[in-house]
Amino acid sequence: MYIVFEWIVGSGKSTQSKNLVEYLRQTYPDREVIHVREPGSTPIAEDIRYLCQWKEWEDEEMHPLTNAYLYAAARAQTLHTVVEPALRAGKIVVSDRSFLSSLAYQWEAQWLWFDTVLDVNKSAIEWVLPDVVLYMDIPVETALARTFDAVGDKWEKMGKEFFEYIVTGYRKSANLDILRWRFEFIDATGTKEDIFQTITECIHSRFQ
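Above: the chain's sequence. Below: its structure in C-alpha cell form.
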C-alpha cells in the first residue's frame, strides 16, 4: 500500500500525512508503516533537498531543468533505498509528495516540456506508482493564508500566480491515463478533524 499526499504549502498535507501514519499504525498493528517525504528521508536525499530548496548562489538561479534532474535524483534515492524495499516486504508507505510534484512544478509552473519532465523521472521511479494520491484540494488563497513560516524555502516565497500554475499542473496530471484512477480529491477546506475523517474513509474504501 503506497499512499501519497500532494498539493502546495498550506494545504495541510504534511500534517494529515503524519496523522494518517499514526492512524494506520494503530489500525494495522501487524503491518509496519513507513513515513517518507520527497525530497528527503535519506541522508543523500536530504542533502539534495537543501540544495534544491534552500541553497542560494550569488548572481545565479537554478535552471528548471536542473531542478527536475536534482529532484529526480533525490526521488531515485528514496524510492530505491526506502520505498520499494518496504513495499516488497509488505509494509505500508505514506509519502509527503511524489513525482507528481515535479510534473506540477517543473512542467506547468516552470515551463518545461511534459515529456522532458516525465523522461527525467522514468528511470528514477521505474514505474513505482502510488496506489492512491490524496490531493488536498483547497483554493490557493486559503492555502497561502495558512502559511505562517516567514522564512520559507524558495518555493514558499513564490506568489499566487505561480501556485495557480501548479494547480493546473496537478489537474492535468490527474487526467493522465496512468494516474486517473489513482487520484482522490480531498476537500481540505474544513476542520482538521473533518478532513482526516474524509481521508480515512477514502483509504478504507480503497483497501478493504
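The chain has one domain: 2-207.
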